[in-house]
Design a protein that fits this description.
Blueprint lengths: L15 H4 L9 H14 L1 H15 L5 H9 L10 H14 E9 L2 H20 L2 H12 L4 E8 L8 E6 L4 E3 L15 E4 L2 E2 H7 L4 H15 L10 H8 L9 E2 L4 E2 L2 E15 L5 E3 L6 H10 L2 E16 L2 E7 L9 E5 L1 E2 L5 E2 L2 H23 L2 E4 L7 H11 L16 E4 L2 H22 L3 H4 L8 H40 L4 E6 L6 E6 L1 E2 L5 E2 L7 E9 L2 H17 L5 H11 L5 H12 L10 H76 L1 H28 L5
């Protein structure tokens, strides 16, 4: 199927040989048409009420009957829309306190990849303008009572293949006997029907071009253009008059437009499933490779054969079925997440205006009546106070003017009585104020929640009333969390089904606004796949990310208290975190300048837990390598020093040996000299020789001592 028709999620229809092998539980085309008629007729009253709620929100609060009655009693209708600010308060609360969709793995391995799945969900939301779509869906859930977000495929290769699209509640019908939350085990069908050009439909189904034209011409010939073969309610009538995208007709000939039906329904089919210990359940199909089938059988805890529901999809245009095929999405659920406000006893959705609609109408009527009583007067006069009946009418008009001029016959003033309504004005105002109070009590939008002045003087009293208002509106946000959980589960299924190749995501941190990049399904040189998100089982939880000024200020104050008691090594991180959560202007530049001062390396503050662990391992490894290199350098320096010391020691030993040799030479010369002196003494006499001998002995001792000391001082240290 061409990509021109983005509403239809399938890329191809089943060939005839495959249609013949459908499950015996697969419905016939006539059954599908009966479902369409059933859903449309069953929702007439509900759709009319929801349309009236939308009209009240828009300020259309006076019916034709009430306007005519007010005109008859000379009351100018005044519109005071109390529903609008109440709804806007709830919408603003959702916008300023976003809810984050987070994936949690069921095993330790899946938990490590859960952060990447969460970032993948955020990436899909960012690429599709998801936050605005979620806000629009929530806004519709609190006015008409329900809206839908569809998770499907975008066949435009220039865009993200996983698509989020808002489905207007007026174009969606569901099984009236099913679950409003679209549990496929109890909901038999869901279908979409919106207007499109005839040429667009033919381009989407070129093989069925002839059948489409014949069906269109048959509708145009039978009805002259606008068919109302199914149902008609207030919403449909107005939508048809405005040539909108929702009505009960199949075609419109003025612009060659048609309204095909895209219907989704589960069908029971047999299947073989491999169940793993980590919670994964994989269906073993014929299209799998034999090696993959063998791997499933060998590694699964058990193999189960069961009859399960498979989601199917069909497109109908009148009695012609243009396509039918099995859902190509990564799940067997309906492809939409319903956003619901409240549910009545019939499990039909409704919004905030439904319970305060009557009070708001009464406020308008009381205000209009009070205003009329304030400046209008009742005039009673006899017929002959003026000459003609026309002058009597003029007298009444002038009497009700602030600057009126009344002219009557002489003496007729006593026969004219003027009565005002100020005595009854107080009762009207009291009843009006009572209705306004009921509006705030029922909706939870009291003065404290709205930020208006109130009689609460203490901060504790104001907080108590704000808490009371939040308690009343808590079911709305509880339903919002449920809707987001379903939305997250649908997106995860699509991510694991279609993100099979390497993909780089740019994630913008909600807290700091800093961009970071994550690589999924990254192939390593050894053939492994890192961050493989196509495997594993994940649960969806919804966590709050408050952004209102009051809550942000409370969180910053809490971090400040922690900083007072935290150890010194934690203070830099707490300081940066408190700065990130604050509303300080240009905080990104301040953070960039403060990080080096605080000893925090830039870029590490936005890392995930897995990235921080990997960073710590790499940093420790680098530090170990640096330490080893430093040790090697120190060892080489020590060796060089020892070699130098050894060389110096060898030189000192050689010098000492030379000194000793000189000492020995001097000793030998001294001994020779003593011998000569002894002979001289013997020859010349004892007295004279003894004096010379003593003198020579003293010189010899001094010379020997000096030689020994010099040699000793040059010996190396041991």
């Amino acid at each position: 199927m061409p990509a021109v028709l983005l509403d239809f999620a399938s890329q191809r229809s089943l060939p005839n040989r495959v249609k013949a092998s459908l499950s015996p539980f697969s419905p016939k085309t006539s059954t599908l048409l009966n479902w369409i008629y059933e859903a449309q007729t069953a929702s007439i009253q509900w759709r009319a009420e929801s349309w009236a709620d939308c009209a009240m929100y828009d300020g259309d609060m006076w019916s034709e009957k009430d306007l005519k009655a007010a005109e008859e009693i000379s009351i100018d209708p005044i519109t005071v829309n109390r529903i609008f600010p109440t709804v806007e308060l709830l919408k603003g609360s959702q916008m300023t306190n976003r809810l984050n969709i987070i994936a949690k793995g069921r095993t330790q391995r899946d938990t490590e990849l859960g952060n990447l799945i969460s970032e993948g969900i955020q990436f899909v939301i960012d690429q599709n303008g998801g936050q605005e779509i979620i806000s629009d869906a929530f806004a519709k859930s609190i006015v008409p009572g329900i809206n839908y977000i569809q998770v499907g495929l975008n066949h435009d290769p220039r865009r993200e293949p996983i698509q989020l699209k808002l489905r207007d509640w007026k174009t969606v019908w569901t099984d009236p006997f099913g679950d409003p939350w679209l549990d496929p085990t109890v909901t038999r069908y869901l279908f979409f029907a919106r207007w499109m050009d005839l040429e667009t439909l033919k381009a989407a189904f070129p093989a069925m071009k002839k059948e489409i034209e014949e069906q269109f011409n048959e509708f145009a010939g039978d009805t002259g253009g606008d068919t109302t073969s199914f149902y008609m309610d207030e919403a449909t009538e107005i939508e048809m008059d405005r040539r909108s995208m929702s009505s009960a007709a199949w075609i419109k000939t003025d612009r060659q437009r048609c309204r095909p039906v895209e219907i989704w329904f589960p069908v029971y089919e047999p299947g073989i499933f491999a169940i793993f210990k980590d919670g994964r359940v994989v269906e073993i199909t014929e299209c799998m490779e034999p090696a993959e089938q063998l791997f499933m059988v060998e590694n699964a805890q058990r193999i189960v054969r069961a009859m399960v529901q498979k989601m199917w999809w069909s497109v109908l245009f009148g009695n012609v079925e243009l396509a039918r095929c099995r859902s190509q999405l990564g799940h067997d659920r309906f492809p939409v997440s319903p956003f619901i406000g409240y549910l009545d006893r019939f499990n039909l959705p409704y919004g905030v205006p439904r319970q305060i609609r009557g009070q708001n109408i009464e406020v308008n009527k009381r205000r209009s009546m009070a205003l009329a009583m304030l400046y209008k007067r009742r005039i009673t006069a006899e017929n002959d106070v003026v000459d003609t009946p026309e002058e009597l009418d003029e007298l009444f008009v002038e009497a009700n003017k602030l600057d009126g001029f009344m002219r009557v016959k002489p003496g007729a003033l006593n026969r004219i009585r003027t009565e005002d309504h100020l005595a009854k004005l107080g009762a009207q105002l009291e009843l009006m104020q009572l209705s306004e109070k009921e509006i705030s009590e029922i909706s939870g939008a009291n003065n404290e929640m709205m930020g208006y002045g109130s009689n609460a003087r203490s901060g504790t009293a104001i907080e108590a009333r704000q808490s009371q208002g939040a308690t009343i509106t808590a079911p709305l946000f509880s339903h919002l969390r449920r809707s987001l959980k379903t939305l997250g589960e649908l997106v995860i299924s699509e991510i694991q089904e279609f993100w099979t190749e390497e993909k780089v995501l740019r994630i913008t941190d909600d807290l700091t606004g800093v961009d970071k990049f994550v690589v999924l399904n990254q192939k390593t040189p050894d053939g492994r796949i890192q961050n493989n998100i196509t495997e594993g089982t994940y649960d969806v939880i919804i966590s709050e990310s408050p952004r209102s000024d009051t809550i942000r200020e409370q969180n910053v104050n809490l971090l400040t208290e922690w900083m007072k008691k935290a150890p010194p090594e934690v203070l830099p991180y707490l300081f940066l975190l408190s700065l990130e959560m604050s509303g300080v202007p240009n905080k990104d530049k301040i953070l960039a300048r403060m990080q080096p001062v605080l000893g925090i390396e830039p870029g590490t503050e936005n890392m995930t837990a897995e990235e921080l662990r990997q960073y710590a391992v790499e940093k420790a490894q680098a530090a170990s390598e640096a330490a080893q290199h430093q040790a090697q350098l120190a060892e080489q320096e020590l060796i060089i020093k020892m070699e130098s010391d050894q060389a110096s020691t060898r030189d000192d030993l050689a010098s000492a040996q030379k000194k000793l040799e000189e000492v020995k030479k001097i000793q030998a010369e001294t001994a020779k000299l003593l011998e000569e002196l002894k002979q001289l003494q013997f020859q010349t006499g004892f007295a004279m020789g003894q004096q010379s001998v003593d003198e020579m002995a003293r010189k010899s001792d001094a010379l020997r001592t000096a030689a020994v000391m010099g040699a000793t001082s040059n010996e190396p240290n041991s």
